[in-house]
């Protein structure tokens, strides 16, 4: 088993990523499970730890819903 101990997923239109600005376009876009999965497969990663990108209750709920629906 290979464990990725830190990654983020976000959906920009949720609106609570106050650190995100258009000046860094590679970050100012959605990063979701479908974006991460090919990289995990290629590296042989079977488990991950999803880390908050915003310190809000809405972010916590968003991440818990991803965790409930995602096998890794």
Describe the structure.
Strand 1 (3-7), helix 1 (33-43) and strand 2 form a beta-alpha-beta unit. 33% of the residues lie in helices and 12% in strands. It has a two-stranded parallel ribbon. By secondary structure, the chain is an alpha+beta fold. The protein is built from 2 helices and 2 strands; from the N terminus they run E-H-E-H. It has helices spanning 33-43, 57-69, and strands at residues 3-7, 47-50.
Keyword list:
single chain, 72 residues, alpha+beta, two-stranded parallel ribbon, 2 helices, 2 strands, 33% helix, globular
Summarize it.
By secondary structure, the protein is an alpha+beta fold. The chain is built from two helices and two strands, in the order E-H-E-H. Strand 1, helix 1 and strand 2 (47-50) form a beta-alpha-beta unit.
Strand % is 5-15%
Low-confidence runs (pLDDT<50, min 5 residues)? Answer: none
Largest sheet: 2 strands, parallel
The N- to C-terminal Cα distance equals 11 Å
Question: Strand-and-helix sequence, N→C?
Answer: EHEH
Number of continuous helical runs:
2
What does the average pLDDT come to?
95
| Rg estimate, integer Å | 13 Å
Helix content: 25-40%
The total of beta strands comes to 2
Structural class: alpha+beta
Q: What spatial form do the alpha-carbon principal axes imply?
A: globular
Strand order of the largest sheet: 1-2
Topology:
Blueprint lengths: L2 E5 L25 H11 L3 E4 L6 H13 L3
Parallel strand pairs: 1-2
